[in-house]
Amino acid sequence: MPNHLLDSTFHALADPTRRAILSRLAAGEESAGALAEPFDMALPSFLQHLKVLEAGGLITTEKRGRQRICRLEEARFAEARGWMEAEMRRWTGRLDRLGDYLNRKDRPQ
Questions:
Q1: Rounded average pLDDT over 2-22
Q2: Please, which contacts does 21-25 make with residues 24 or more away whose CB atoms are closer than 8 Å?
Q3: CATH (one of 2.40.50.140, 3.20.20.70, 3.40.50.300, 1.10.10.10) for 3-106
Q4: Range 46-54, long-range pairs (CB < 8 A, 24+ positions)
Q5: What's the whole-model pTM score?
Q6: What is the reported pLDDT for 1?
Q7: 77 exposed, middle or buried (CB, 10 Å; 0-12, 13-18, 19+)?
Q8: What percent of the chain has pLDDT over 90?
Q9: Chain-wide mean pLDDT for the chain?
Q10: Domain ranges of the chain
Q11: Do 18 and 49 touch, CB atoms closer than 8 A?
């Protein structure tokens, strides 16, 4: 995943309101109005959160009549997970090598 896409994905995930929206969408698509109901904020502020999620590739929105319907984009989650797993493997390898080095250093010669 290119860095700018990864940056926008993690930026979108950084906010607790946006993570709560994603949790709600995990159950299925919903209208923007229905998603906004439990949040104590003006609708324009809420819609800005949806724009950030959409820019991060985590949701798509579609106009249906007078409603804007939101749904999760699971592919972007898989891409972010793939990046995190690769980083975890890289750091695990580094830490394993450091542990091996420290174990060899501590042994009497």
A1: 90
A2: 21/49, 21/50, 21/53, 21/59, 21/70, 22/53, 22/58, 22/59, 22/72, 25/59, 25/70, 25/71, 25/72
A3: 1.10.10.10
A4: 49/15, 49/17, 49/18, 49/21, 50/21, 52/11, 52/12, 52/15, 52/18, 53/12, 53/18, 53/21, 53/22
A5: 0.77
A6: 62
A7: middle
A8: 61
A9: 90
A10: 3-106
A11: yes
Pairing of strands 30-31, 67-72: antiparallel
Contact present, 80 and 10 (Cβ < 8 Å): yes
Q: Which long-range contacts (CB under 8 A, 24 or more apart) does 80-89 make?
A: 80/1, 80/6, 80/9, 80/10, 80/13, 82/1, 83/1, 83/6
For 43-93, how does the pLDDT look when each residue is reduced to its tens digit (9 = 90+)? Answer: 999 999 999 999 999 999 999 999 999 999 988 888 888 888 988 998 888
